[in-house]
Amino acid sequence: MVGDTERFMALPIPGMPGVESVMRIGKPYKLVARESRPEATEIQVGDVIVGRDSFVVIAGPCAIETEEQAMASARAAKAAGAHILRGDAYKHRTSPYAFQGLAKRGLEILAQMRAETGMPTVTEVLQTTDVELVASYSDVLRIGARNMQNFELLKEVGKLHKPVMLKRGLASTIEEWLMAAEYIANQGNEEIILCERGIRTYEPMTRNTLDISSVPLIHSLSHLPIIVDPSHSGGKRELVGPLARAAVAVGADGIMVDVHPKPEAALCDGPQAITTEEVAELVADIIAVAKAVGRPMANPKQNLSAIGE
């Protein structure tokens, strides 16, 4: 018999044919459950701590398209006060004809972004054969929504001594999401950051529906940190700010947003990317909301210095 977050087993009672007792056997995920570690996990990403004590902003291009585009986005994120850079060299796309990323060249540009800004990076890995290569370039490996239940990939990143960001699947339950995280932890790597990126519903006005309730639920069920991706959740530039503010207010440990110097010309997810000018306004709004709810920003002085210092 299956409950929402617990597992039970029906056992026959000796000497009483047809009568069974029900035994609780606990949650199906053990290592990532709150019971296994009452204190919240903090994950070191470069000089940044991702966890319950502060709020982290991750920003940068959804896809690295050119060196110029990626560096402009990175500089804008740095100047705005973001803490971690995002930028993907490999992209899972619904259409086989869509831009798939620059592969190794994209990773090299990602390394340039980190070298110039001094900020740690997160990027997506799509398949087991690329894990070692991607890990050599990025501080955090991200498992995308479409790969949330790619169990061999989960096992492979679980063997690393490097943080992993795990996005929620397109239509996955919270329990399935935590079970995917358990695959990573089961291999020895408990440096896992969960990312709520919205789920597919019947509503066509947004790209996905942001399940904001997943944030407090995850905090009650697991010791892992959880961030929100307002870019992929709403799929529209004008929704990024409101959803990001909601993420702060509900208690998320951070956000991850897409930034592009010219979203109208983007090769990937342009409609949801904020401009290099808008990212500073977004971070300012985040700081205001965080202050209102008593949530400090992560290492705020670290990334506000001039580029190149």
Q: What is the first-to-last residue Cα distance?
A: 59 Å
Average pLDDT: 91
Q: In CATH's first tier, which class of the largest domain applies? A: Alpha Beta
CATH architecture of the largest domain, by name, is: Alpha-Beta Barrel
Total separate domains: 2
The portion of residues forming beta strands comes to: 15-25%
Structural class: alpha/beta
Structure characterization notes:
There is one protein chain. The strands form 3 sheets. The protein has an 8-stranded parallel beta sheet. It has a two-stranded antiparallel sheet with strand order 1-2. Strands 3-4 form a two-stranded antiparallel sheet. α1 (67-80) runs parallel beside α9 (278-292). The protein has 2 domains: 1-29, no CATH class; 31-292, Aldolase class I (TIM Barrel). The protein is 32% helix and 17% strand. The model is unreliable at 1-5 and 300-309 (pLDDT under 50). With 309 residues, the protein is an alpha/beta fold.
